[in-house]
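Reader question, answered in our methods column.
A reader sent in the components of a multi-part assembly and asked whether the whole thing could be modeled at once rather than chain by chain. We filled in our standard form and ran it. Here is what they sent:
COMPLEX SIZE: two components
ENTRIES:
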Amino acid sequence: MARRLDIHEREFEAHFRTLLSLKRESAPDVRDTVATILADVKANGDAALAAYTRRFDRFDVETNGLAITSAELDAAVEAVDADTLAALRVAASRIRAYHERQRPAGFSFTDEAGIHLGERWTAVDAAGLYVPGGLASYPSSVLMNAIPAAVAGVGRVVMVVPTPEGVTNPLVLAAAREAGVTEIYRVGGAQAVAALAFGTATIAPVDKIVGPGNAFVAEAKRQVFGTVGIDSIAGPSEILVVADNRNDPAWIAADLLSQAEHDTAAQSILITDDAAFADAVAAAVEAHLATLPRAAIARESWETNGAIITVESFDAALPLIDRIAAEHLELAIKGAEAFAARVRHAGAIFIGRLTPEAIGDYIAGPNHVLPTSRTARFSSGLSVYDFMKRTTFVQMNDEGLRAIGPSAVKLAEAEGLGAHALSVAIRLPEKQGG
Amino acid sequence: MARRLDIHEREFEAHFRTLLSLKRESAPDVRDTVATILADVKANGDAALAAYTRRFDRFDVETNGLAITSAELDAAVEAVDADTLAALRVAASRIRAYHERQRPAGFSFTDEAGIHLGERWTAVDAAGLYVPGGLASYPSSVLMNAIPAAVAGVGRVVMVVPTPEGVTNPLVLAAAREAGVTEIYRVGGAQAVAALAFGTATIAPVDKIVGPGNAFVAEAKRQVFGTVGIDSIAGPSEILVVADNRNDPAWIAADLLSQAEHDTAAQSILITDDAAFADAVAAAVEAHLATLPRAAIARESWETNGAIITVESFDAALPLIDRIAAEHLELAIKGAEAFAARVRHAGAIFIGRLTPEAIGDYIAGPNHVLPTSRTARFSSGLSVYDFMKRTTFVQMNDEGLRAIGPSAVKLAEAEGLGAHALSVAIRLPEKQGG
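And here is the structure of the entire assembly that came back:
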């Protein structure tokens, strides 16, 4: 059973704080190991990649080739059954359509002094996408990470994926093709991140690295940040379901379990205004767990990190919702749409009884890479913006310089920056302020 | 003299690479010291702030008060001379007008299956602004960091500033008032960052911390990242001036020195198509250095990190410009506007002979907090977006669920995620795919 909290308990605030501060992740300290691998790849390039891949993935890239060829990609796509491939294409096309709406326009204007100002967005030259091998290898994740890059207009979208014993996941490769990935290499771990950041003879360096990975990959991303851009380091997944008693408890239980089954460190929370409904959901969770393939993981997550919170009204829940700042927020209540507009902090909101969170994981369109661990208070899901950057511009003329130049000189002098003042004053017609 | 490179030299590529990889910054390892300070403030709150402030700033906040009061702010504004205050207000109003154009609109739409999708932007609840004390205390920096937060709609804009021996900079306080800062505390260093991130009895925690600082402040921001958002850690300032021989060499020399005077680690580079003009600029730099107040710093920067690159044409310079990816790019050439449109990587572009970079430091309108050390390849200047975050949303109906639900079920099954599949299938009218 997940823990139960009631907003009317005397100790509620303390229990709620405990829930918020549950330390669900235990990251091993792999800093030094990762630093060594990065330095090795930086110095020795492809040879280092081959050595690490032999050691960690028991695979010889020197004889088999580091790159996955176009022919191998074709073969992988052939190996996927038609229905799954069709579903993948529906997903890719919906994700693309959504992300195309994100493409920023920039702006420019000329102010009353005749000064022309603005900003424009351009894509990064090359993006790297880390894809985990083995069990955590999700084709949906390839779509969600690569499509925004392609939509942004990134020229090179480079995927790295470990292939332990040479095994690849055909659906992951099919997803890479659908998503517009332009290069794929059979390498994983910190060594793959190093190759993307520093480049090797085979893998040209990229400017931005995204995608999920284990502790080594996360630490490698942290260490190369600055040389390249990175996405945020994702924590375990979370869902907050807000539901009234007019839902089928089995539906809500399935939603809670859809996060819980990801990882024992995942967190599922239900907020409801009806204690009897809470009981019914708890019972439905147990019933589902009897049949689900990943029941062991889901049960551990639910029992360790899960919670059911009862409130007297959803208005009273609103501050709790903002404090939780959930990665995924599902609103299965009356007036869900209006209520959603009042929520300030959440990565993604799933509105209404017919919008299970899983629809967003795969196919709705918005990105499923979302801020975890309460970081939705200050950060956002992955987007087209993450693969672009802004350049601002200013173009002055005589009139503009006369209008605002003297103020710039004044401020530069107040800050004691003589060359700043000089560079403006020297251009003023009457050398005012110079 | 700064180094000279010519694109026709045989060794040009090697010399250019050396220039790009100049390690201008030597950050001391302050990781452990900072970790200790953060833990202390987290555990002991205001008492720890008082102890560190006594030790590092020789100032007693327990008797003098941690907060700078509204009356003290009034007195500071009174102390600023009228002309400087007027210049500050021109700057604030122009910066505000520019940043108001950044306020993102978000979007929503209903697709052909009747599915409602979109995203909206909301401000963070509270932002913290670090302002260095002493020499590096720049009022322009207060405007550039605080105004975007205020424009974003951030409710609490909290400034921290060390006041060694109790000394404050009246112009910094006046800038805080103009910029819409809502709270100011006399505390600096890692301890101030800790207070902003974790909160104390006096200082409520914020969600995002921005602003420049020394190595301790930068490391503290790195360590609290995740608990709060942070801006990027700025490196030493840079300018790349691209100029033809129709400029007054003295103007261009002043522009190069306006970055060089910031810091001995700053970098100023000139690209020109005329070797004689290059000589004239180099001579003008020497002439200016004879009179400038910060000549010693500027000279060291120019001689250690500066460069003049001669090219046969500005078209040939374009790839170099993108590889340098300068924080500030000044285009003092014929056809500068059209040329600017071809540049892919730069933090900010100053177009034309009458647009010295310093005009952007103070008064033009765009932000002066810009990506340094070639990070303009993947990152952008500070903006309103940095104080906001996006929440995506989806609202399904029966028709939409029937249209795309089965594809979601298929993909969830292909990924082996049974509860994901169940949460969608259970809502499908005929339980397809369930």
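What stands out: Chain B has a mean pLDDT of 95. The two ends of chain B are 75 Å apart (CA to CA).
Send us your own complexes using the same form.
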